[in-house]
TrEMBL record:
Taxonomic superkingdom: Bacteria
Gene Ontology MF terms in the entry: oxidoreductase activity
Organism of this sequence: Streptomyces tabacisoli
Keywords from the UniProt entry: Oxidoreductase
UniProt name for this protein: Oxidoreductase
Recorded family membership: Belongs to the short-chain dehydrogenases/reductases (SDR) family.
Keyword Manganese: no
Gene3D superfamilies from the UniProt entry: NAD(P)-binding Rossmann-like Domain
Length: 306
């Protein structure tokens, strides 16, 4: 995979993909390049205005692209269920669980979950489970979850998944990204016989607005300027940051539970299989998180053997 770039994406004609959070950043690049390769792509976004504008941008950049917007708010399980109900009865070849939030001030989702854990993990856990029947109807389905190298900041606390005892924004972010990897690990185990190929990716340090959203919410202008400077000076582009996700989503030779990231110090460069913390491949932890996620969301995966 040395030097792999978006031009190496295999033909995606006839395949249908859903990309969450595709209105900006690496999600938008992922959706655009899948469409350029021939896939029909659904941009699943919270904001109708931003999602529709993103569809228009892709159509301008990729003439003939088959893309559409559908509303999805991962902070509201009713919205997640509504999205899945609107999809029922049609095969789905690829689900890219890309959307996420980072280092926000403490908050809660519509269902009362800590925001980062609720959006980054539980929303995607519920979405994947509810779309599983459609994934199982496709001949070669994949589920790609976008984690982060910052999963190494913290392991999950199975007794305090919603950070109720103490909330530290960066630790909560790390836990949510560890949860992404444990989810992929357990899904890969359960899907080994007849389920979707479950893999993960991370973008390294990519120039998106994700880093600064928490600072902006709190009016911390100094931190906003700091993150903006980091994007200009040391980050790679969103186009480069999307390559590990695109590789995981499309390349041949991808294996269950693989984790892809940038080659150079996990920071930038072409995609490669990358390091992950040992606690993200712990079978018992994956099983416990899965059981807790089912209980919290009410979503039980039908058709997979535990």
């Amino acid at each position: 995979m040395t030097g792999w770039n978006a031009r190496a994406i295999p033909d995606q004609s006839g395949r249908t993909a859903v990309v969450t959070g595709a209105n900006s950043g690496i999600g938008h690049v992922t959706a655009r390049e899948l469409a350029r390769a021939g896939a029909r792509v659904v941009l699943a976004c919270r904001s109708a205005a931003r999602g529709s504008a993103a569809v228009d941008r892709i159509r301008d950049e990729v003439p003939g692209a088959v893309v559409e917007f559908r509303a999805l708010d991962l902070a509201d399980l009713a919205s997640v269920r509504g999205f899945a109900e609107g999809w029922a009865g049609r095969p789905l070849d690829l689900l890219v669980n890309n959307a996420g939030v980072m280092a926000l001030p403490h908050g809660r989702t519509a269902d009362g979950f800590e925001t980062q854990f609720g959006v980054n993990h539980l929303g995607h856990f519920a979405l994947t489970g509810l779309l599983l029947p459609s994934l199982l109807e496709a001949p070669d389905p994949r589920v790609v979850s976008v984690s982060s190298v910052l999963h190494a900041l913290a392991n999950i606390d199975i007794g305090d998944l919603n950070s109720e005892r103490r909330y530290r924004r960066w630790a909560a972010y790390g836990r949510s990204k560890t949860a992404n990897l444990l989810f992929v690990h357990e899904l890969a185990r359960r899907a080994a016989a007849s389920g979707p190929l479950a893999v993960a990716a991370h973008p390294g340090y990519a120039a998106t607005d994700l880093h600064a959203r928490g600072a902006k919410m709190e009016g911390r202008r100094g931190m906003e300027r700091f993150y903006a400077a980091g994007n200009r000076v040391v980050a790679q582009s969103a186009e480069a940051g999307a390559l590990p996700t695109l590789y995981a989503a499309t390349a041949r030779g991808v294996r269950p539970d693989d984790f892809y990231g940038p080659r150079l110090l996990m920071w930038r460069g072409a995609p490669t299989r990358t390091w992950r913390a040992p606690w993200t491949v712990h079978d018992a932890a994956g099983e416990r998180l899965w059981a807790a996620s089912e209980q919290l969301t009410g979503v039980v995966y039908e058709g997979l053997k535990a």
